[in-house]
Amino acid sequence: MRILVFIAAFLLASPALAQGIQQTKGDFQDKFRQLDEVLPDPNVYRNASGAPGHQYWQQRADYRITAELDEKKRRLTAQATINYTNNSPDVLPWIWMQLDQNIFRKDSVAELTNTFGGPGRRGPVVKPADGDEPAKLSLGELRRQQAMADNDYGYDIRSITLPDGSKLSHTIVGTMMRIDLPMPLKPNESVEFQIDWAFNIVEENAVRARSGYEHFPNDPRSGGNDIFLFAQWFPRLVAYSDYEGWHNKEFLGRGEYTLEFGDYDVTMAVPNDHIVSSTGILANPIDVLTATQRQRLETAKNADKPVFIVTPQEAAANERTGPSGTKIWRYTAKNVRDFAWASSRKFMWDAQGHKQPGAEHDTVMAMSFWPKEGGELWRKYSTASVVHTMKVYSRFSFDYPYPTAQSVNGPVGGMEYPMITFNGPRTTLNKDGSRTYSLSEKVFLVGVIIHEIGHIYFPMVVNSDERQWTWMDEGINSFLDSVAGYEWDPDMPWTRSLPRDLIPYMTSSQQVPIMTHSDSVLNLGPNAYGKPSAAFHILRDTVIGRERFDFALKEYSQRWKHKRPTPADFFRTMEEASGTDLDWFWRGWFYTTDHVDISLDTIHKLRIDTENPNIDLPRRRGELADDPEKVGNRLNREERVPIWVLENPGVTDFYDENDEFTVTPKDRKSYKEFLESMDEPWMRPTFDRAVKEDANYYVLSFSNKGGLVMPIILDLTFADGKTERMMIPAEIWRRNAREVKKMLVFPKGKTLAKVVVDPDWETADADVENNHYPRRMIESRIEAFKSPDRKERVQRDLMGEARGTEKNKTGRK
Hints:
The protein is of the alpha+beta class. Strand 27 (about 430) and strand 28 (about 435) form a beta hairpin. The radius of gyration is 36 Å and the shape is elongated.
């Protein structure tokens, strides 16, 4: 295709102008519309740049707790003295507490609204009927039903009193409790009160919880042993914020927690052969550790690899014998938003100091607690993974802000709390007594520890609302854990967090916007973990670039360290710090279910017409000669059909010697007039240069089939085999989000041979086949198979089965 040159600039502009007017009257989609009407207005608490406002405030809750574990009854009894400070400008007539253990009550909203065949509590447990297939109920779900029937779970609130002993009126609403104050709590005032409670500890493997106990019946000790994981184990203050007031949404199991920071002083009375891991630092090591163990702990601070504090031999000895009494472990923690702990006689314990010079805590004790079932897998990788996580995450946010970071093995697959995480993978016991593990268990352990330790940064420090906006901690953390994972070992099969991993979800009918409340999402994993992570990878590697993205994320992390950000604060900070308008990105990725599918539909190659008839007309004659021969003429020629004009030469005339491309005086006159019409001094030099250069002009036509606008990444291959990479910013879709054309210009000798869109699969483009031009052949495989036998009873040989003579798998009797 050739390019005809128009001199009047208006003729070039007017079609585009007309198209723009037509779009605004028709089906124009403004994918770049600003989010001003969606995001809350900036105010004195949260400013327009995404930073905390000059009047930002948040509440505070300090706890002193004493707890006693009854191992035999598997029951915890505790008492807490809570000091609540009202830093808000509001007068509070009551306060709200979270009673998360009440989710296990038979009459809880979570229990009554769990649907058959739904996503389950911590995983699928039933399968509804499908065609001829009957409904299925897993043994795990039957086990859960039996545990719920045999036990009374939930909090037993025994008393709530003021320091003078007077009772406080309270109302329990499912997993929430309102405590009415005798006098409204004014701004800058505090109230102190005491709660006494107890609860039966759930068996985690039976009930599927975020905490509970695990029983090991085959341990050498008579009756076996247990691992206890305590989380959501005490009544906790509901958050009160400037943007929502009391965050007293019912706990349904998926949406996690919104909490206040405070200081903790906690004592735990446990069997005296137990080892306790906990949020905070051990305040009484002399009472619970031997002199040798205390020396090992001191040595570990400067060790270059983990040092055993409780050795495998000491743990094995504890497993064999029973307790002779109790020990009191005391842990203290400052400025944390939650508190969790674990207790078991099965634990071995190792530790290693992680150095971060100049930080508030220049030595952080990375520690792991695990039973023999963890084996070499835990010895090699747990504490090492903790250290690696802190090194990576601190680059993107801030120095690790606490004195310890712990990984504890137990029945919970993966959960996070300040300074302590619960992680599940283990080894397999073989018949010869050895323990081995699969590659997937190794990947799972390293990955889950990175992920859960990462949560100590987000949301345990950057304190987002997990219940309402799960992606703010899970999505950011999944992005960073994938960064840390690939820095650990790029050859390990990490999954779920890269753009290419999310294509099946983003093209499915089950996708919902990321901004959907977590309890309303069917597939929480891809929605709150994977898709946001994919979005951040694209922002970092494609849209913004690593330097500006990393700077912006670090700015967000430091602005909101120990504070409570909202999505608007994150969006605004990332834009303000990176210097990039990203409203189009937030709108598409977080507020819609569009996916990426950019198709390269056609490429037209064009060259400049010289307008000189002595050049252009012979060229056009040659182009026509290159057309395929007419089929009828070819067949006539092959059959030697006579041609009339060849056999009768007397019928020739002017047109037998001259064709439509013959140059005439009129053609030359028109060319001269064309040159003379260039009356501006810049026109003729511009035209002459274009003719001389005779560049190759390529017009690429793209269509947006998925709806999500994205940069267009092109891999260009030329006829000489050389390649180039270029990226067209997403803003190309501003005026038409459905289809656009882009012209690329290359010198005369540079001929484009092939173009591929998104060659490295970095934008989650759902259909890679329409990314190739020319289209490539699609390769696949076929597999031969044998149709399965019908399983209905009417089609079975019941006669043969009854006689014991039915055919075997080979069909022989």
